[in-house]
Amino acid sequence: MIRAFQTTDLEAVMELWLRGNLQAHAFIEDTYWEQSFDLVKEMLPDAEAYVYENKATSAVEGFIGLVDNSYIAGIFVKDSARSQGIGKQLLDYIKADRQRLTLKVYEKNKRALQFYQREGFQIQSESLDENTGEQEYEMVWNYNSYPRQSLR
What is the domain partition of the chain in residue ranges? Predict the structure, then answer.
Protein backbone atom coordinates (compact mmCIF):
# COMPACT_ATOMS: atom_id res chain seq x y z
CA MET A 1 0.00 0.00 0.00
CA ILE A 2 1.27 3.46 -0.87
CA ARG A 3 0.47 6.34 1.45
CA ALA A 4 1.77 9.76 2.41
CA PHE A 5 4.86 9.87 4.62
CA GLN A 6 4.15 10.39 8.32
CA THR A 7 6.64 11.54 10.95
CA THR A 8 6.37 8.10 12.57
CA ASP A 9 7.99 6.72 9.39
CA LEU A 10 11.10 8.86 9.80
CA GLU A 11 13.45 6.28 11.34
CA ALA A 12 12.51 3.53 8.87
CA VAL A 13 12.76 5.89 5.90
CA MET A 14 16.14 7.22 6.98
CA GLU A 15 17.48 3.69 7.37
CA LEU A 16 16.31 2.94 3.80
CA TRP A 17 17.88 6.20 2.60
CA LEU A 18 21.28 5.52 4.13
CA ARG A 19 21.48 1.82 3.25
CA GLY A 20 20.19 2.46 -0.26
CA ASN A 21 22.74 5.19 -0.93
CA LEU A 22 25.62 3.15 0.46
CA GLN A 23 24.64 0.14 -1.65
CA ALA A 24 23.83 1.95 -4.91
CA HIS A 25 26.75 4.35 -4.79
CA ALA A 26 29.79 2.26 -3.90
CA PHE A 27 31.78 4.66 -6.09
CA ILE A 28 31.19 7.48 -3.56
CA GLU A 29 32.83 7.53 -0.14
CA ASP A 30 30.52 6.30 2.63
CA THR A 31 31.34 9.40 4.66
CA TYR A 32 29.52 11.58 2.08
CA TRP A 33 26.21 9.85 2.84
CA GLU A 34 26.89 9.56 6.56
CA GLN A 35 27.64 13.30 6.80
CA SER A 36 24.46 14.13 4.84
CA PHE A 37 22.26 11.96 7.08
CA ASP A 38 21.30 14.58 9.70
CA LEU A 39 20.48 17.25 7.11
CA VAL A 40 18.24 14.89 5.14
CA LYS A 41 16.57 13.72 8.34
CA GLU A 42 15.84 17.32 9.28
CA MET A 43 14.44 18.20 5.85
CA LEU A 44 12.38 15.06 5.21
CA PRO A 45 9.35 15.86 7.38
CA ASP A 46 8.79 19.02 5.31
CA ALA A 47 9.22 17.28 1.94
CA GLU A 48 6.57 15.60 -0.19
CA ALA A 49 7.16 11.89 0.29
CA TYR A 50 5.24 8.66 -0.05
CA VAL A 51 5.97 5.29 1.47
CA TYR A 52 5.26 1.75 0.40
CA GLU A 53 3.96 -0.13 3.42
CA ASN A 54 3.80 -3.92 3.44
CA LYS A 55 0.15 -4.81 4.13
CA ALA A 56 0.98 -7.97 6.06
CA THR A 57 3.69 -6.57 8.33
CA SER A 58 2.99 -2.80 8.27
CA ALA A 59 6.73 -2.33 7.63
CA VAL A 60 7.91 0.50 5.39
CA GLU A 61 9.68 -1.20 2.48
CA GLY A 62 10.20 1.77 0.19
CA PHE A 63 9.71 5.48 -0.32
CA ILE A 64 9.88 8.23 -2.90
CA GLY A 65 10.69 11.86 -2.17
CA LEU A 66 9.76 14.90 -4.26
CA VAL A 67 10.93 18.49 -4.29
CA ASP A 68 8.81 21.27 -5.82
CA ASN A 69 6.16 18.74 -6.88
CA SER A 70 8.14 17.52 -9.89
CA TYR A 71 11.77 16.73 -8.97
CA ILE A 72 12.33 13.18 -7.73
CA ALA A 73 14.90 13.43 -4.96
CA GLY A 74 15.09 9.65 -4.78
CA ILE A 75 13.38 6.27 -4.74
CA PHE A 76 14.58 3.81 -2.14
CA VAL A 77 13.50 0.21 -1.60
CA LYS A 78 14.57 -2.13 1.18
CA ASP A 79 17.23 -4.48 -0.19
CA SER A 80 15.22 -7.62 0.66
CA ALA A 81 12.19 -6.19 -1.20
CA ARG A 82 13.93 -5.11 -4.41
CA SER A 83 12.93 -6.45 -7.82
CA GLN A 84 9.35 -6.92 -6.65
CA GLY A 85 7.90 -3.87 -8.40
CA ILE A 86 7.85 -1.54 -5.39
CA GLY A 87 9.96 1.17 -7.03
CA LYS A 88 7.76 1.07 -10.13
CA GLN A 89 4.61 1.30 -8.01
CA LEU A 90 5.96 4.33 -6.17
CA LEU A 91 6.94 5.99 -9.44
CA ASP A 92 3.60 5.22 -11.09
CA TYR A 93 1.85 6.66 -8.05
CA ILE A 94 3.43 10.07 -8.50
CA LYS A 95 3.15 9.95 -12.29
CA ALA A 96 -0.62 9.65 -11.87
CA ASP A 97 -1.20 13.37 -11.37
CA ARG A 98 1.86 15.04 -12.85
CA GLN A 99 2.64 16.17 -16.37
CA ARG A 100 6.41 16.25 -15.99
CA LEU A 101 9.02 14.79 -13.66
CA THR A 102 12.76 15.34 -13.48
CA LEU A 103 15.59 13.71 -11.57
CA LYS A 104 19.34 13.26 -11.52
CA VAL A 105 21.08 9.91 -11.51
CA TYR A 106 24.77 9.12 -11.36
CA GLU A 107 26.22 7.74 -14.59
CA LYS A 108 27.78 4.85 -12.64
CA ASN A 109 24.45 3.87 -11.04
CA LYS A 110 23.60 1.60 -13.97
CA ARG A 111 20.69 -0.17 -12.27
CA ALA A 112 18.87 3.10 -11.52
CA LEU A 113 19.68 4.51 -14.95
CA GLN A 114 18.20 1.46 -16.67
CA PHE A 115 15.14 1.55 -14.39
CA TYR A 116 14.38 5.18 -15.22
CA GLN A 117 14.92 4.66 -18.94
CA ARG A 118 12.59 1.67 -18.85
CA GLU A 119 10.00 3.89 -17.15
CA GLY A 120 10.10 6.50 -19.92
CA PHE A 121 12.68 8.97 -18.61
CA GLN A 122 15.05 10.44 -21.17
CA ILE A 123 18.49 11.91 -20.59
CA GLN A 124 18.42 15.67 -21.13
CA SER A 125 21.89 16.66 -20.03
CA GLU A 126 25.06 15.49 -18.34
CA SER A 127 26.99 17.36 -15.66
CA LEU A 128 29.50 16.93 -12.88
CA ASP A 129 28.16 16.75 -9.32
CA GLU A 130 30.48 19.17 -7.53
CA ASN A 131 29.81 17.52 -4.16
CA THR A 132 30.95 14.06 -5.24
CA GLY A 133 33.01 14.65 -8.38
CA GLU A 134 30.83 12.12 -10.22
CA GLN A 135 29.15 12.47 -13.61
CA GLU A 136 25.36 12.54 -13.47
CA TYR A 137 22.49 12.70 -15.91
CA GLU A 138 19.48 14.93 -15.66
CA MET A 139 16.50 12.91 -16.84
CA VAL A 140 12.98 14.00 -17.75
CA TRP A 141 9.65 12.22 -18.07
CA ASN A 142 6.71 13.91 -19.81
CA TYR A 143 3.13 12.72 -19.73
CA ASN A 144 2.65 13.47 -23.43
CA SER A 145 5.53 11.25 -24.47
CA TYR A 146 4.78 8.41 -22.06
CA PRO A 147 1.11 8.30 -20.96
CA ARG A 148 0.11 6.35 -17.89
CA GLN A 149 -3.00 5.09 -16.19
CA SER A 150 -4.45 6.84 -13.18
CA LEU A 151 -3.68 5.02 -9.94
CA ARG A 152 -5.55 7.34 -7.64
Answer: 2-145
